[in-house]
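Lipocalin-like domain-containing protein (Fulvivirga lutea), 162 aa
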Amino acid sequence: MNRIISIILITILFACESKKSSENEEKAPEQTLSQQMVGTWRNLELKVTIKNNSKDSVLNVPEGKWPEILNINPIETSFNEDGTFVSVYKDIGGNVIMSTNGTWGAIGDTLKMTKSNLTNSYHAQINEDIVTFKSYLDWDNDGERDDYYEGTQEKISTEESL
């Protein structure tokens, strides 16, 4: 009788371990920010609070209002695996009016983008194919990183370069 109970307990234990093992195999390893960022992203919205001595000003571009407010389509940025990026600006007719490029990298939840020897760091939070960036930048070129930027982008392609 003891032998039968032992066999049943071993069988139950083996079955539980087997299930736990298959559950662990089903979970995909969590991707790093660097891995998640590779691809092309389109701006959805942005808000910049520009610090001024007399009174702060706010540039607010809600989703769908880019042509109306800035007279351009949302900016598209491709982050490449080799650490380079390109941002493409198009007029409302879809014609490229400007592009900028540089290098990028990520450590933890911080994205660093460098162009023209200027590096900006952004706290990045990704949920599915939406990323939100937050940072203090020198938006108004007054020499102070005191302008608060918050922007949201959606991933439109896993392809690298535009």
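The CA atoms of residues 50 and 147 lie 5 Å apart. Residues 2-26 form the longest helix (25 residues). ok done for today
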